[in-house]
Amino acid sequence: MTTFEQFQASRREVDDVEAATNGDYPTDGKRAGFVYLDGFVIERTATGFYLVIENQQFENAELAPLEREMFDFYRAVNAAAPLPISVATIGDKIKLARAFGELVQAELRPFQFREMCDANKAEPENSGVCHSHDYFDANMIMLEAFKATFGREPAFMENPDHAADLELWNDAWAIAKAADFFA
After folding, report:
1. What is the pLDDT of residue 53?
2. Higher pLDDT, residue 72 or 141
3. Residue 1 clears pLDDT 70, i.e. is over it
4. Helices 64-80 and 163-178: angle between axes, nearest 10 degrees
5. d(CA 183, CA 173)
6. Under a CB-based contact definition with an 8 Å cutoff, are residues 46 and 33 in contact?
7. Cβ-based neighbour number of residue 81 at 10 Å
């Protein structure tokens, strides 16, 4: 597992976080900041640094506390489902997780969405259960998100031995679930 020091060592300072993440971190203009593991971003602001995780925003004059917040999130997601960076980038997984989360939110009424998230949180750590299936065929929603994100069907639909897209699918699902579908 990646250590905090390794996570920090992956930091790249960039002038445009959106360009550096190939659009996976959209901004309303060119923003400088830091990119970690090719997908996690901390923006530089006039007064310090800015970080968004799930539906929470963090600001701090110091970089290290925000790196710790981001690393803790990364570690929680990584514990739920290892993210093999060599197969698909973290950015690809986050992009798919976001698309999936948006579609899941659109399928449910607000009270159903809260019930689903609460039921997921009640599951044991590292549980493979996702209560989105209690409300609809979540695999079809993920398939829709996958096609919208990558412009194709996952390769494992034609070839069950194609593990890379299956890992991408499962990792994005784990990220979305860990982020209460607000990745």
Report:
1. 83
2. 141
3. no
4. 120
5. 10
6. no
7. 19
| pLDDT for residue 78 is more than 70 | no
Q: What share of the chain is helix, strand, coil (3-state, %, to 5)?
A: 50, 15, 35
Tell me the domain boundaries of the chain: 4-80, 90-178
Alpha carbons 32 and 20: distance in angstroms, whole number = 10
Residue 146 · residue 153 · CB < 8 Å: yes
The token duo for 170 is 């499962």
Instruction: In whole angstroms, give the CA distance from residue 126 to residue 136.
Output: 22
Q: How far is CA 103 from CA 41, 112, 115, in A?
A: 23, 14, 16
Q: Provide the phi-psi class of 51: left if phi over 0, else alpha when psi is between -120 and 50, else beta.
A: beta
Q: What angle do CA 170, 50, 41 make, to 5 degrees?
A: 35
CA distance 183 to 181: 6
DSSP code of residue 132:
G
**CA–CA gap between residue 27 and residue 144 (Å, rounded):** 24
| Side chain identity, residue 103 | L
**Who contacts 122 (Cβ-Cβ below 8 Å, separation ≥6)?**
none
- The two tokens of residue 142 are 């993920």
